[in-house]
Amino acid sequence: MKKAYLALENGLVFEGKAFGAEGEVYGEVVFNTSITGYQEILTDPSYKGQIVTMTYPLIGNYGVNEEDIESLRPQVEGFVVKELSQIYSNWRAGLSLEEYLIKHNIVGIQGIDTRALTRAIRLQGAMKGVLSTKDSDPQSLIEKAKGCPGLIGRDLVKEVTSQKPYFWKDKNNLKKEKFSVVVLDCGVKFSILRNLSKVGFKIEVVPAFTKADDILRRKPDGVLLSNGPGDPSAVSYVIETVRDLLGKVPIFGICLGQQMLGLALGGKTYKLKFGHHGGNHPVKDLKTAKVAITAQNHGFCVDKNSILDKDLKITHINLYDSTLEGLEHKKLKFFSVQYHPEAGPGPNDALYLFKKFFDLVSNYAQKKGY
């Protein structure tokens, strides 16, 4: 096998074996603690700009299929695993993981000490890195890692959003569509759309650069602000749109969507040390005191002390680090969570939030008299 190298900006260099496509890629190196779901992780648009390391040691054993995707192609910049399974076995599989990465030109590396890499990120924080099958000079790679762009101040939403509006129809869901929802696509996962459809929404997805007036002209019963990659404070056009929508239509924000709501209300966001990436994060509902195990993928967070609106309530807190995981505003008819209720991959503890959004929309519609 051809050699591959992963170098971090702090000077660490890992030598391993290449798999997938050949080439050289740059990005912020992060780790994901999920045991399964590598296909959904690869295709999650929130990972744009990042090289993803899987902490579970054996990856690829069930191949890749056409159903378990969260966007039309892999979004990660590169992929890091301890061991790539040489065989795959699943009745739905159509390709091996390596064939899938070659098809979509994604560079991978295996055979490195992913425990040491994860520990370095845990101690020092997520770092810029370069993954290469072309350059074997450690010093050259380190300099490239230092010089590549980071995530702070970078708008990656423009690279993953749809370029024109479209309607989403889930062929597996025959539920009658009672209300319409516009999804502001900052990098929306297909599982979010699937779950909106399951509870009874007619769904139109619009690009992230769509203005509030254009959204309101569609007369939606609700608006969903989607997940997405990069620094939320860099996406000023979405913040402006959200600010113009507040109080005019019920809103549900997921992940980046929550960050946009926080910024629209005058709050601030900050970069987490190494982010939350995985399917095992405990989140406490402050109203019920119940704890849900959640799927998460974000590197930024709303500063819970930065929003001074007295009508805004913190609803959820992360039990790992006490970071903000949920918001609700009764007067402005919105709520949001920082985690991923749709999972994909991950536990289904939070799927009830899609029904909560449907109920919010339904109650608002009744008050309007229809």
Report on this structure.
- The protein is of the alpha/beta class.
- The chain has two domains: 3-147, 3-Layer(bba) Sandwich (Glucose Oxidase, domain 1), CATH 3.50.30; 157-368, Rossmann fold, CATH 3.40.50.880.
- It has ten helices and 19 strands.
- The protein has a ten-stranded mixed sheet, with helices on both faces. It has a seven-stranded mixed β-barrel with strand order 1-2-8-6-4-3-9. A two-stranded parallel sheet has the order 5-7.
- Helix 8 crosses helix 9.
- The longest helix is centred in the last third of the chain and has 17 residues, at 352-368.
- The mean pLDDT is 96.
Biggest sheet overview = 10 strands, mixed
CATH fold-level name of the largest domain: Rossmann fold
Task: Give the proportion of residues in helices.
Answer: 10-25%
Span from first to last CA? 64 Å
Tally of DSSP β-strands? 19
Structural class determined from secondary elements:
alpha/beta
Work out the helix count. Answer: 10
Strand content: 25-35%
